[in-house]
Amino acid sequence: MKIRENVMKYVFFLAALVSVAAVLLICIFLFANGVPAMAKIGVFDFLLGKEWKPSDIPPLFGILPMILGSVYVTAGALILGVPIGLLTAVYMSRYCPKKIYGFLRMAVDLLAGIPSVVYGFFGIIILVPFVRNTFGGNGISILTACILLGIMILPTIISVSESAINAVSSNYYEGALALGATKESSIFKVVLPAAKSGILAGVVLGIGRAIGETMAVLMVVGNQARMPKGILQGVRTLTTNIVAEMGYAADLHREALIATGVVLFVFVLIINVIFSIIKNGGKNR
Amino acid sequence: MSSLNTINKITFKQKMEMYKKRKGSLAVRMLVKLSALITFAVLIYIVLFILINGVGHLNAEFFSFNYTTENVSVIPAVINTLVIIVISLVISIPIGILSAVFLVEYAKRGSKIVNLIRITAETLSGIPSIVYGLFGMLFFVNTLKMGYSMISGGLTLAIMILPLIMRTTEEALISVPDTYREASFGLGAGTLRTVFRVILPASLPGILAGVILSIGRIIGESAALMYTSGTVAQIATNVMDSGRTLAIHMYLLASEGLYTDQAYATAVVLLVVAILINMSSQTISKRIIRKG
Q1: Is A29 on the interface with B (CB under 8 A)?
Q2: Which positions ≥6 away from B130 have C-beta within 8 Å?
Q3: Top-level CATH class of A63-284?
Q4: Which of A8, B81, B166, B276 is the most exposed place for a label (fewest CB within 10 A)?
Q5: Is residue B203 a part of any domain in this protein?
Q6: Does A208 touch chain B (CB under 8 A)?
Q7: Residues 6+ away with beta carbon under 8 Å from A47
Q8: How far is CA B141 from CA A5, A217, B229, in A?
């Protein structure tokens, strides 16, 4: 009996170590395959090079266009998604009648559950013609990707902000109301500042989702490997660089794509660290 | 709260008087409602648009057993998706549940090893699917020489959904009241028996909800599978064969531009599955709340 208890304890422990091993393996394999390529190309030429021409002689592997592409597309998604998401969270937490709440909750969960290829398809069929007809250009553009990603990060922003708002003690809200403030100023000047760190954590999580999204972006962003020229022009992001060329890449080209993955991975790790600092900071207060 | 509401109840007219004085508040109120409306409308629009335009393209040919370039049948992709689901779940459910049990029932809260496991699980859940795809290609496909195959794809996704299963199981275990544990210990059961006979059965619905969400993630996944399980359009007859899943099928149909009708139809299938998965996980979690 005693022996079995002890043996099982180690089984549980080993199972728990699998996730640690997985992270280690992912780090080792990505870095071992990507870092040598970076060294071969030259770290500065790789990160700050403005030309990505893998088939030229000699080939050029500069990923600055993709880094900027990812940054622009993510920033645009935040500009569109954060205000709408945050205000929707406020609505769900403070305005929503109980009867509608169930529907809204389900809607937000479903938004999170729709596969990214379906979003991408929706982007091709609806958003691309919409952008083409309203703003000009051929519709396959940074702006289109921003709108699509703005929709895709909504559920993340809404869920995290809503629970942050709900976690604020109702004393704050009622206190402000009792002082004669309107419902709106109570919420926006008292409750939201108190929920600041939770909301910020949601935004950071949204950044992580937007920067890592691949297929939906691939389908609407055009995928031209060149420096971004305007929001109605196509661009390529870090993620789409990998999927678009991995199928036929060989040798240094292939390693350069893996190195692109390493850059993306490092971005995501930094975002993760920021997220946990914000989250824990909010807890300690 | 409800008594407070009745004291503070004001008529619509009084409300309007107040907002007349505070125009800023009125504007903010409108913005809040408008945003909620936008969120809801966007979802309804996407769902209805795809359902209405796609249902007409669902026909017998599209569901025929054999894939040809004429019918671009969805059935092989559905079967491959099921295979990948089974492989990933068989691996990640036991590991996920056992690690959650370790974290909740065995480890001392706040010890270094627990923190390390928490941090790595959080890291795993933040990694984008394309990075999983790259890792799967480097590790399973190339290093372990599994090639583009169901098993490579399944193993890659098993790692991807592990944090989700761990977290939902952990929450389910924590929500089991301590009185259950005390009663079991009081009757002379050891930790092991308590875990398997009392705590796990009590937290089954929560674990199930997590598993259903994981299935949803697997079905919707495409970037992690492109270069692990591959894009072959036929049924994978064994786990070492390559085959495309539903989401990859959808991507290829939509991006080739030749099969828009069939892409609509596949979108309908994916969307209906997403809705069903959502509803069932919600029903289960509602049941948990009612019980608790």
Answers
A1: yes
A2: A212, A214, A239, A242, A243, A261, A264, B223, B224
A3: mainly alpha
A4: B276
A5: yes
A6: yes
A7: A63, A64, A67, A263
A8: 38, 26, 9
| B167-184 pLDDT, tens digit each | 999 999 999 999 999 999
Domain enclosing residue B183, as ranges: 61-291
Q: Residue A256: is its pLDDT beyond 90?
A: yes
- B147 and B33 share one domain: no
The answer to whether B162 and B98 are in contact (CB under 8 A) is no
Grade residue A285 by pLDDT with cuts at 50, 70 and 90.
very low
A236: left (phi over 0), alpha (psi -120 to 50) or beta: beta
What are the boundaries of each domain within chain A? Answer: 2-53, 63-284
The Cβ-side half-sphere exposure at A267, using a 13 Å CA radius, reads 26
**DSSP secondary structure letter of residue B235:** P
For residue A79, what pLDDT band results from cuts at 50, 70 and 90? very high
Q: Which long-range contacts (CB under 8 A, 24 or more apart) does A46-52 make?
A: A46/A256, A46/A259, A47/A263, A50/A227, A52/A225, A52/A226, A52/A236, A52/A241
Tell me how many degrees the CA angle B174-B177-B183 measures, rounded to the nearest 5: 125
Q: What is the pLDDT of residues B259-276, one digit of tens each?
A: 888 899 999 999 999 999
Contacts of A212 (CB under 8 A, 6+ apart): A239, A264, A268, B127, B128, B129, B130, B131
Q: Rounded to two decimals, what is the model's pTM?
A: 0.91
Torsions phi, psi of A235, nearest 5? -155, 175
CATH code, B73: 1.10.3720.10
Please give the average per-residue pLDDT across A24-32, as a whole number. 94
Q: What is the CA radius of gyration of chain B?
A: 24
List CB contacts (< 8 A) between A111 and chain B: 39, 42-43
pLDDT surpassing 80 at residue A188: yes
Say if B274 is an interface residue toward chain A (CB within 8 Å).
yes
CA distance A276 to chain B (A): 9
In this structure, the number of other CB atoms found within 10 A of the CB of residue B133 comes to: 30
Residue matched to tokens 């895709």: A152
Q: How many domains in chain B?
A: 2
Rounded distance, CA B51 to CA A274, Å? 40
Q: Given B22, B130, B282, which is nearest A243 (Cβ)?
A: B130
A59 touches chain B (CB under 8 A): no
Nearest to B116 among A20, A246, A275 (CB): A20
DSSP B112-155: HHHHHHHHHHHHHHHS-HHHHHHHHIIIIIIIS---SSHHHHHH
Q: Tell me the two tokens of residue B31.
A: 């913005």
CA separation for the pair B292, B285 (Å, rounded): 10
Strands A52-53 and A60-61: antiparallel
In 3D space, the residue among B226, B62, B266, B96 whose CA is nearest the CA of residue B172 turns out to be B96
